[in-house]
Amino acid sequence: MRFWLRSLQQSSIRYSSTLNQIIDKRLNSELDSIRQAGTWKSERIISTSQSAHIKVEHSTNDLLNFCANNYLGLANNSQIIQAAKNALDKYGSGLSSVRFICGTQTIHKQLEQRIAKFHQREDAILYISCFDANAGIFETLLKEQDYIISDELNHASIIDGIRLCKAKRLRYKHKDMSDLELKLQESFNDKNENIIRLIATDGVFSMDGSIAPLPDIRRLADKYKALIFVDECHATGFFGPTGRGTEEHFQMTGNIDIINSTLGKALGGAAGGYTTGPKALIDLLRQRSRPYLFSNTLPPSVVASAMKAIDLIENDTSLPGRVLENAKYFRTEMQTLGFQILGDSHPICPVMLGDARLASQFADEMLKRGIYVIGFSYPVVPKDRARIRVQVSAAHSKADLKRCIDAFAEVGRQFKVIK
Ligand code: PLP
Protein backbone atom coordinates (compact mmCIF):
# COMPACT_ATOMS: atom_id res chain seq x y z
CA MET A 1 0.00 0.00 0.00
CA ARG A 2 1.25 3.45 -0.81
CA PHE A 3 2.70 5.57 1.99
CA TRP A 4 0.15 8.37 1.55
CA LEU A 5 -2.77 5.94 1.86
CA ARG A 6 -1.34 4.45 5.04
CA SER A 7 -0.76 7.85 6.60
CA LEU A 8 -4.21 9.00 5.54
CA GLN A 9 -5.83 6.02 7.25
CA GLN A 10 -3.90 6.78 10.42
CA SER A 11 -5.07 10.38 10.44
CA SER A 12 -8.57 11.72 10.87
CA ILE A 13 -8.58 13.31 7.41
CA ARG A 14 -11.42 12.01 5.23
CA TYR A 15 -11.52 12.82 1.52
CA SER A 16 -14.58 12.46 -0.67
CA SER A 17 -14.64 9.46 -3.01
CA THR A 18 -14.36 11.89 -5.96
CA LEU A 19 -11.20 13.42 -4.57
CA ASN A 20 -9.76 9.98 -3.75
CA GLN A 21 -10.42 8.90 -7.33
CA ILE A 22 -8.74 12.01 -8.76
CA ILE A 23 -5.74 11.56 -6.46
CA ASP A 24 -5.40 7.94 -7.51
CA LYS A 25 -6.08 8.21 -11.24
CA ARG A 26 -4.70 11.62 -12.07
CA LEU A 27 -2.35 13.06 -9.48
CA ASN A 28 -0.49 9.88 -8.53
CA SER A 29 -0.02 8.82 -12.13
CA GLU A 30 1.39 12.25 -12.99
CA LEU A 31 3.67 12.10 -9.95
CA ASP A 32 4.85 8.62 -11.01
CA SER A 33 5.66 9.84 -14.49
CA ILE A 34 7.77 12.69 -13.06
CA ARG A 35 9.68 10.16 -10.92
CA GLN A 36 10.18 7.84 -13.87
CA ALA A 37 11.50 10.65 -16.05
CA GLY A 38 14.15 11.34 -13.40
CA THR A 39 12.99 14.95 -13.11
CA TRP A 40 11.65 14.80 -9.56
CA LYS A 41 12.68 17.87 -7.59
CA SER A 42 13.17 17.21 -3.90
CA GLU A 43 13.69 20.00 -1.42
CA ARG A 44 16.62 19.95 0.96
CA ILE A 45 15.71 21.57 4.24
CA ILE A 46 18.10 24.26 5.45
CA SER A 47 18.33 24.56 9.23
CA THR A 48 20.39 27.79 9.32
CA SER A 49 19.94 31.23 7.80
CA GLN A 50 20.60 31.65 4.09
CA SER A 51 24.33 32.13 3.59
CA ALA A 52 27.43 30.93 1.76
CA HIS A 53 27.85 28.41 4.60
CA ILE A 54 24.72 26.54 5.65
CA LYS A 55 23.55 23.39 7.41
CA VAL A 56 20.76 21.14 6.18
CA GLU A 57 18.49 18.83 8.19
CA HIS A 58 19.84 15.37 9.08
CA SER A 59 23.45 16.47 8.65
CA THR A 60 25.81 18.09 11.09
CA ASN A 61 28.24 19.08 8.36
CA ASP A 62 28.73 22.60 7.11
CA LEU A 63 27.77 22.92 3.47
CA LEU A 64 29.06 25.43 0.99
CA ASN A 65 26.02 26.89 -0.72
CA PHE A 66 26.23 27.58 -4.46
CA CYS A 67 22.59 27.71 -5.42
CA ALA A 68 21.08 30.79 -3.79
CA ASN A 69 20.24 34.05 -5.56
CA ASN A 70 21.99 35.67 -2.59
CA TYR A 71 24.34 37.49 -4.98
CA LEU A 72 25.62 40.03 -2.49
CA GLY A 73 25.46 37.79 0.57
CA LEU A 74 22.99 40.18 2.24
CA ALA A 75 20.35 37.58 3.19
CA ASN A 76 21.69 37.32 6.76
CA ASN A 77 23.45 40.68 6.97
CA SER A 78 23.29 41.97 10.55
CA GLN A 79 22.39 45.57 9.57
CA ILE A 80 19.54 44.34 7.39
CA ILE A 81 18.24 42.08 10.16
CA GLN A 82 18.37 44.98 12.62
CA ALA A 83 16.51 47.27 10.21
CA ALA A 84 13.80 44.61 9.83
CA LYS A 85 13.53 44.23 13.62
CA ASN A 86 13.21 47.99 14.10
CA ALA A 87 10.45 48.10 11.49
CA LEU A 88 8.64 45.22 13.21
CA ASP A 89 8.69 47.17 16.47
CA LYS A 90 7.60 50.44 14.90
CA TYR A 91 5.17 49.34 12.17
CA GLY A 92 4.00 45.88 13.26
CA SER A 93 4.11 42.55 11.46
CA GLY A 94 1.77 43.40 8.60
CA LEU A 95 -1.12 45.52 7.37
CA SER A 96 -3.92 42.99 6.88
CA SER A 97 -4.83 44.96 3.81
CA VAL A 98 -4.07 45.74 0.22
CA ARG A 99 -2.32 49.01 -0.49
CA PHE A 100 -5.29 51.13 -1.61
CA ILE A 101 -7.55 50.27 1.31
CA CYS A 102 -5.35 50.75 4.36
CA GLY A 103 -2.06 49.06 3.47
CA THR A 104 0.23 51.99 2.69
CA GLN A 105 2.67 53.14 5.37
CA THR A 106 5.32 55.82 5.29
CA ILE A 107 8.02 53.24 4.58
CA HIS A 108 6.22 51.81 1.54
CA LYS A 109 6.24 55.25 -0.07
CA GLN A 110 9.86 55.80 0.99
CA LEU A 111 10.99 52.51 -0.54
CA GLU A 112 9.18 53.29 -3.81
CA GLN A 113 10.99 56.62 -3.97
CA ARG A 114 14.33 54.93 -3.18
CA ILE A 115 13.82 52.35 -5.92
CA ALA A 116 12.87 55.00 -8.48
CA LYS A 117 15.94 57.05 -7.55
CA PHE A 118 18.20 53.96 -7.61
CA HIS A 119 17.11 53.28 -11.21
CA GLN A 120 16.89 57.00 -12.11
CA ARG A 121 13.19 56.73 -12.91
CA GLU A 122 10.17 58.90 -12.10
CA ASP A 123 8.32 56.48 -9.86
CA ALA A 124 8.03 52.87 -8.70
CA ILE A 125 5.29 50.57 -7.43
CA LEU A 126 5.80 47.70 -4.97
CA TYR A 127 4.36 44.21 -5.24
CA ILE A 128 4.50 41.21 -2.95
CA SER A 129 6.81 39.54 -5.54
CA CYS A 130 8.27 40.16 -8.98
CA PHE A 131 6.09 37.29 -10.16
CA ASP A 132 3.15 39.56 -9.30
CA ALA A 133 4.80 42.60 -10.90
CA ASN A 134 5.10 40.55 -14.11
CA ALA A 135 1.51 39.36 -13.75
CA GLY A 136 0.28 42.95 -13.46
CA ILE A 137 2.18 44.90 -16.09
CA PHE A 138 1.14 43.43 -19.46
CA GLU A 139 -2.59 43.18 -18.79
CA THR A 140 -2.66 46.76 -17.52
CA LEU A 141 -0.62 48.30 -20.33
CA LEU A 142 -1.64 46.32 -23.42
CA LYS A 143 -4.99 46.04 -25.19
CA GLU A 144 -6.28 43.84 -28.07
CA GLN A 145 -4.79 46.04 -30.80
CA ASP A 146 -1.28 45.99 -29.27
CA TYR A 147 1.69 43.65 -29.77
CA ILE A 148 3.87 41.92 -27.21
CA ILE A 149 7.11 40.59 -28.67
CA SER A 150 8.85 38.25 -26.28
CA ASP A 151 12.18 36.36 -26.11
CA GLU A 152 11.43 32.62 -26.20
CA LEU A 153 13.52 31.97 -23.06
CA ASN A 154 11.88 34.61 -20.89
CA HIS A 155 11.15 33.68 -17.28
CA ALA A 156 7.94 31.77 -16.53
CA SER A 157 6.46 34.78 -14.74
CA ILE A 158 6.81 36.94 -17.89
CA ILE A 159 5.22 34.18 -19.95
CA ASP A 160 2.34 33.89 -17.49
CA GLY A 161 1.93 37.66 -17.33
CA ILE A 162 1.71 37.80 -21.11
CA ARG A 163 -0.91 35.03 -21.08
CA LEU A 164 -3.12 37.32 -19.01
CA CYS A 165 -3.16 40.13 -21.58
CA LYS A 166 -5.16 40.34 -24.78
CA ALA A 167 -2.41 41.78 -27.01
CA LYS A 168 -1.19 39.92 -30.09
CA ARG A 169 1.73 37.71 -29.12
CA LEU A 170 4.90 37.29 -31.14
CA ARG A 171 7.89 35.29 -29.92
CA TYR A 172 11.45 35.75 -31.16
CA LYS A 173 14.29 33.24 -30.97
CA HIS A 174 16.47 33.66 -27.90
CA LYS A 175 18.58 36.83 -28.28
CA ASP A 176 18.22 36.57 -32.08
CA MET A 177 18.09 40.14 -33.37
CA SER A 178 17.25 39.15 -36.97
CA ASP A 179 14.25 37.24 -35.70
CA LEU A 180 13.26 40.11 -33.41
CA GLU A 181 13.40 42.45 -36.42
CA LEU A 182 11.15 40.10 -38.42
CA LYS A 183 8.60 40.12 -35.61
CA LEU A 184 8.83 43.89 -35.28
CA GLN A 185 8.26 44.25 -39.04
CA GLU A 186 5.19 42.04 -38.73
CA SER A 187 3.81 44.33 -36.01
CA PHE A 188 4.83 47.43 -38.02
CA ASN A 189 2.58 46.41 -40.92
CA ASP A 190 -0.17 47.44 -38.58
CA LYS A 191 -0.29 51.16 -39.34
CA ASN A 192 -2.51 52.10 -36.41
CA GLU A 193 -0.66 55.08 -34.85
CA ASN A 194 -2.11 54.32 -31.45
CA ILE A 195 -0.87 50.81 -30.92
CA ILE A 196 1.81 49.78 -28.47
CA ARG A 197 4.56 47.37 -29.52
CA LEU A 198 6.31 46.09 -26.43
CA ILE A 199 9.50 44.03 -26.54
CA ALA A 200 9.85 41.93 -23.38
CA THR A 201 13.10 40.34 -22.26
CA ASP A 202 14.96 39.20 -19.19
CA GLY A 203 18.03 41.41 -18.64
CA VAL A 204 19.97 38.32 -17.59
CA PHE A 205 18.51 34.89 -18.33
CA SER A 206 18.33 32.90 -15.13
CA MET A 207 18.94 29.43 -16.54
CA ASP A 208 21.74 30.38 -18.96
CA GLY A 209 23.45 33.33 -17.27
CA SER A 210 23.35 35.05 -20.66
CA ILE A 211 22.74 38.75 -21.15
CA ALA A 212 20.12 40.33 -23.39
CA PRO A 213 21.77 42.53 -26.08
CA LEU A 214 20.03 45.67 -24.89
CA PRO A 215 21.83 48.17 -27.20
CA ASP A 216 20.70 46.16 -30.26
CA ILE A 217 17.20 45.79 -28.86
CA ARG A 218 17.06 49.57 -28.27
CA ARG A 219 18.16 50.26 -31.85
CA LEU A 220 15.44 48.00 -33.24
CA ALA A 221 12.85 49.36 -30.84
CA ASP A 222 13.56 52.91 -32.03
CA LYS A 223 13.43 51.87 -35.68
CA TYR A 224 10.01 50.22 -35.26
CA LYS A 225 8.56 52.58 -32.63
CA ALA A 226 8.47 49.92 -29.92
CA LEU A 227 8.88 50.06 -26.15
CA ILE A 228 11.23 47.84 -24.12
CA PHE A 229 10.38 45.97 -20.95
CA VAL A 230 13.26 44.32 -19.04
CA ASP A 231 13.05 41.93 -16.08
CA GLU A 232 16.11 42.70 -13.97
CA CYS A 233 15.73 40.08 -11.23
CA HIS A 234 19.18 38.63 -11.92
CA ALA A 235 20.91 41.99 -12.28
CA THR A 236 19.52 44.53 -9.82
CA GLY A 237 21.92 45.39 -7.05
CA PHE A 238 25.04 43.73 -8.42
CA PHE A 239 25.29 43.80 -12.20
CA GLY A 240 26.86 46.87 -13.82
CA PRO A 241 29.63 48.89 -12.12
CA THR A 242 27.34 50.21 -9.33
CA GLY A 243 24.74 47.44 -9.38
CA ARG A 244 22.11 49.33 -11.39
CA GLY A 245 21.62 46.32 -13.64
CA THR A 246 21.90 45.30 -17.25
CA GLU A 247 21.31 48.77 -18.70
CA GLU A 248 24.21 50.07 -16.58
CA HIS A 249 26.34 47.11 -17.73
CA PHE A 250 25.77 48.40 -21.28
CA GLN A 251 26.27 52.06 -20.24
CA MET A 252 22.71 52.89 -21.21
CA THR A 253 21.16 53.73 -17.84
CA GLY A 254 17.72 55.28 -18.31
CA ASN A 255 17.28 53.95 -21.84
CA ILE A 256 14.95 51.08 -21.00
CA ASP A 257 11.29 52.06 -20.86
CA ILE A 258 10.01 49.74 -18.13
CA ILE A 259 11.93 47.75 -15.52
CA ASN A 260 10.54 45.04 -13.27
CA SER A 261 12.70 43.51 -10.59
CA THR A 262 12.76 41.68 -7.27
CA LEU A 263 13.70 42.43 -3.68
CA GLY A 264 14.04 38.69 -3.13
CA LYS A 265 17.49 38.13 -4.56
CA ALA A 266 20.40 40.60 -4.24
CA LEU A 267 18.41 43.26 -2.33
CA GLY A 268 18.33 41.42 0.98
CA GLY A 269 16.70 38.22 -0.25
CA ALA A 270 13.42 38.50 1.67
CA ALA A 271 10.61 39.01 -0.86
CA GLY A 272 8.91 41.65 -2.95
CA GLY A 273 8.98 43.01 -6.45
CA TYR A 274 8.44 46.26 -8.28
CA THR A 275 7.90 48.10 -11.53
CA THR A 276 9.77 51.33 -12.13
CA GLY A 277 9.33 53.73 -15.05
CA PRO A 278 7.33 56.79 -16.12
CA LYS A 279 4.97 58.22 -13.49
CA ALA A 280 1.92 57.87 -15.75
CA LEU A 281 2.56 54.14 -16.09
CA ILE A 282 3.01 53.69 -12.33
CA ASP A 283 -0.17 55.72 -11.69
CA LEU A 284 -2.06 53.46 -14.09
CA LEU A 285 -0.70 50.32 -12.41
CA ARG A 286 -1.94 51.60 -9.04
CA GLN A 287 -5.41 51.98 -10.57
CA ARG A 288 -5.61 48.83 -12.65
CA SER A 289 -2.97 46.21 -11.86
CA ARG A 290 -4.78 43.22 -10.37
CA PRO A 291 -1.98 41.71 -8.22
CA TYR A 292 -1.51 45.20 -6.70
CA LEU A 293 -5.22 45.82 -6.14
CA PHE A 294 -6.13 42.37 -4.87
CA SER A 295 -3.14 41.14 -2.86
CA ASN A 296 -1.75 42.07 0.53
CA THR A 297 0.79 44.81 1.04
CA LEU A 298 4.46 43.97 1.69
CA PRO A 299 5.23 43.43 5.41
CA PRO A 300 7.01 46.47 6.94
CA SER A 301 10.01 44.37 8.06
CA VAL A 302 10.55 43.29 4.45
CA VAL A 303 10.26 46.88 3.23
CA ALA A 304 12.82 48.02 5.79
CA SER A 305 15.27 45.25 4.93
CA ALA A 306 15.12 46.14 1.22
CA MET A 307 15.67 49.80 2.04
CA LYS A 308 18.72 48.90 4.14
CA ALA A 309 20.05 46.71 1.30
CA ILE A 310 19.85 49.70 -1.07
CA ASP A 311 21.70 51.81 1.56
CA LEU A 312 24.48 49.22 1.73
CA ILE A 313 24.83 48.96 -2.05
CA GLU A 314 24.87 52.73 -2.48
CA ASN A 315 27.42 53.19 0.31
CA ASP A 316 29.75 50.32 -0.63
CA THR A 317 30.27 50.34 -4.37
CA SER A 318 32.83 47.51 -4.04
CA LEU A 319 30.00 45.02 -3.29
CA PRO A 320 28.91 44.46 -6.93
CA GLY A 321 32.58 44.26 -7.99
CA ARG A 322 33.22 41.45 -5.50
CA VAL A 323 30.59 39.09 -6.91
CA LEU A 324 31.64 39.73 -10.50
CA GLU A 325 35.29 39.10 -9.64
CA ASN A 326 34.31 35.80 -7.96
CA ALA A 327 32.28 34.84 -11.04
CA LYS A 328 35.21 35.54 -13.34
CA TYR A 329 37.55 33.38 -11.23
CA PHE A 330 35.07 30.48 -11.07
CA ARG A 331 34.29 30.57 -14.80
CA THR A 332 37.95 30.70 -15.83
CA GLU A 333 39.06 27.84 -13.56
CA MET A 334 36.14 25.61 -14.56
CA GLN A 335 36.70 26.20 -18.26
CA THR A 336 40.39 25.40 -17.83
CA LEU A 337 39.34 22.06 -16.30
CA GLY A 338 37.30 21.35 -19.45
CA PHE A 339 33.76 22.07 -18.26
CA GLN A 340 31.33 23.81 -20.57
CA ILE A 341 29.98 26.88 -18.77
CA LEU A 342 27.15 28.79 -20.43
CA GLY A 343 26.64 32.51 -20.36
CA ASP A 344 28.71 35.63 -20.14
CA SER A 345 30.52 37.38 -17.28
CA HIS A 346 27.69 36.70 -14.81
CA PRO A 347 27.59 34.90 -11.42
CA ILE A 348 25.03 32.46 -12.82
CA CYS A 349 27.41 29.76 -14.10
CA PRO A 350 25.51 26.83 -15.67
CA VAL A 351 27.76 23.74 -15.85
CA MET A 352 26.37 21.83 -18.82
CA LEU A 353 25.86 18.07 -18.43
CA GLY A 354 23.04 17.26 -20.90
CA ASP A 355 21.45 14.24 -19.26
CA ALA A 356 18.88 14.82 -16.46
CA ARG A 357 19.90 11.78 -14.42
CA LEU A 358 23.58 12.69 -14.67
CA ALA A 359 22.84 16.22 -13.45
CA SER A 360 20.96 14.88 -10.47
CA GLN A 361 23.60 12.23 -9.59
CA PHE A 362 26.38 14.79 -10.06
CA ALA A 363 24.67 17.14 -7.58
CA ASP A 364 24.32 14.26 -5.07
CA GLU A 365 28.05 13.50 -5.35
CA MET A 366 28.87 17.17 -4.85
CA LEU A 367 26.74 17.18 -1.70
CA LYS A 368 28.77 14.26 -0.32
CA ARG A 369 31.78 16.56 -0.68
CA GLY A 370 30.03 19.36 1.21
CA ILE A 371 29.03 21.41 -1.85
CA TYR A 372 25.36 22.26 -2.22
CA VAL A 373 24.44 22.64 -5.91
CA ILE A 374 21.29 21.67 -7.78
CA GLY A 375 20.77 19.84 -11.06
CA PHE A 376 18.27 21.53 -13.36
CA SER A 377 16.39 19.46 -15.91
CA TYR A 378 13.23 19.50 -18.02
CA PRO A 379 10.77 21.28 -17.76
CA VAL A 380 12.86 24.01 -16.08
CA VAL A 381 15.37 23.81 -18.97
CA PRO A 382 14.91 22.22 -22.43
CA LYS A 383 15.19 18.40 -22.73
CA ASP A 384 18.80 17.11 -22.98
CA ARG A 385 20.10 20.47 -21.74
CA ALA A 386 20.34 19.44 -18.07
CA ARG A 387 22.89 21.29 -16.04
CA ILE A 388 24.11 22.25 -12.62
CA ARG A 389 23.52 25.93 -12.11
CA VAL A 390 26.25 27.30 -9.87
CA GLN A 391 25.53 30.71 -8.41
CA VAL A 392 28.49 32.60 -7.13
CA SER A 393 28.06 35.19 -4.37
CA ALA A 394 30.06 38.09 -2.97
CA ALA A 395 29.92 36.13 0.30
CA HIS A 396 32.11 33.32 -1.11
CA SER A 397 35.79 33.53 -0.24
CA LYS A 398 38.49 32.42 -2.69
CA ALA A 399 38.94 29.31 -0.50
CA ASP A 400 35.17 28.54 -0.83
CA LEU A 401 35.38 28.86 -4.61
CA LYS A 402 38.48 26.66 -4.75
CA ARG A 403 36.77 23.92 -2.67
CA CYS A 404 33.84 23.97 -5.07
CA ILE A 405 36.08 23.83 -8.15
CA ASP A 406 38.11 20.94 -6.68
CA ALA A 407 34.94 18.98 -5.97
CA PHE A 408 33.72 19.61 -9.55
CA ALA A 409 37.05 18.31 -10.86
CA GLU A 410 36.81 15.12 -8.79
CA VAL A 411 33.16 14.35 -9.61
CA GLY A 412 33.63 15.42 -13.24
CA ARG A 413 36.40 12.83 -13.63
CA GLN A 414 34.33 10.19 -11.80
CA PHE A 415 31.47 10.64 -14.31
CA LYS A 416 33.90 11.11 -17.22
CA VAL A 417 32.55 14.59 -17.96
CA ILE A 418 36.14 15.88 -18.03
CA LYS A 419 39.47 14.10 -18.46
N1 PLP B 1 11.78 37.03 -12.98
C1 PLP B 1 12.90 36.28 -12.97
C2 PLP B 1 13.84 36.39 -14.13
C3 PLP B 1 13.16 35.41 -11.90
O1 PLP B 1 14.27 34.65 -11.90
C4 PLP B 1 12.24 35.34 -10.83
C5 PLP B 1 12.45 34.43 -9.68
O2 PLP B 1 13.00 33.38 -9.75
C6 PLP B 1 11.10 36.14 -10.87
C7 PLP B 1 10.90 36.97 -11.96
C8 PLP B 1 10.14 36.13 -9.76
O3 PLP B 1 10.67 36.88 -8.69
P1 PLP B 1 10.03 36.80 -7.24
O4 PLP B 1 10.73 35.70 -6.52
O5 PLP B 1 10.25 38.15 -6.66
O6 PLP B 1 8.58 36.50 -7.44
UniProtKB/TrEMBL annotation:
GO terms for biological process: L-threonine catabolic process. Its cofactor is pyridoxal 5'-phosphate. It catalyses: glycine + acetyl-CoA = (2S)-2-amino-3-oxobutanoate + CoA. Its EC number is 2.3.1.29. One of its GO terms (cellular component) is mitochondrion. The keyword Acyltransferase applies. The keyword Transferase applies. Residues 62-408 form the Aminotransferase class I/classII large domain. Pfam families: Aminotran_1_2. PROSITE patterns: AA_TRANSFER_CLASS_2 (PS00599). It comes from the Eukaryota. One of its GO terms (molecular function) is pyridoxal phosphate binding. Keywords: Acyltransferase, Pyridoxal phosphate, Transferase. Belongs to the class-II pyridoxal-phosphate-dependent aminotransferase family. This is 2-amino-3-ketobutyrate coenzyme A ligase, mitochondrial. The lineage of its organism: Eukaryota, Metazoa, Spiralia, Gnathifera, Rotifera.
